[in-house]
Write a structure and sequence with these properties.
Radius of gyration: 15 Å
Oligomer: single chain
Structural class: alpha+beta
C-alpha cells in the first residue's frame, strides 16, 4: 500500500510510538492499517485504526516455538501446506493472542489464523 493512502493519524502514530522502526511497509488488514517493520533485527507489525489507535501488535516467532495444539491443527487441517512464517499477534484491547502462519508453497501466499489453543479462526476478506 502506498504511504499516501495511509491515514495521517495512523502514519504519525507509527513513528511517534515506534521511532526505532526501520524498513516500514504498509498494507490494509481488515479495517486496519498494518505497518510491518524491523526493529533491533526483529520483524514486527502493528495495526492501527484510521485515527491512530493501536489495535494489535505482533512479532515473528520460530515455527518450532508454536504450541502443540497449533502444530496439531496445522498437521490435521493443512497437511499439504508449507508454513514459512509465524507471527504472534496480541490484540491491544483484549490482550488475546492469535497466531498467523503464512503458507508459501505457491506464488500466492495465504494466512492461517489460529487461537492459542489451536482453534481455527475464519478468514476475513482483506481489502
Amino acid at each position: 500500500m502506498a504511504v499516501e493512502n495511509v491515514p495521517p493519524l495512523a502514519y504519525g502514530a507509527m513513528f511517534q510510538q515506534y521511532p526505532l522502526a526501520r524498513q516500514v511497509t504498509w498494507r490494509r488488514y481488515q479495517d486496519w492499517y498494518q505497518a510491518s517493520y524491523t526493529q533491533s533485527q526483529a520483524h514486527r507489525l502493528v495495526r492501527f485504526s484510521s485515527n491512530g489507535d493501536v489495535e494489535a501488535t505482533g512479532q515473528d516467532m520460530a515455527l518450532s516455538a508454536l504450541s502443540l495444539p497449533i502444530q496439531h491443527t496445522l498437521t490435521t487441517y493443512y497437511p499439504t501446506r508449507t508454513i514459512c512464517r509465524a507471527i504472534e499477534v496480541t490484540n491491544a484491547r483484549t490482550r488475546d493472542l492469535t497466531y498467523e502462519m503464512a503458507t508459501c508453497e505457491t506464488a500466492f501466499s495465504r494466512t492461517i489464523t489460529l487461537t492459542a489453543n489451536g482453534q481455527k479462526i475464519p478468514r476475513l476478506r482483506l481489502h
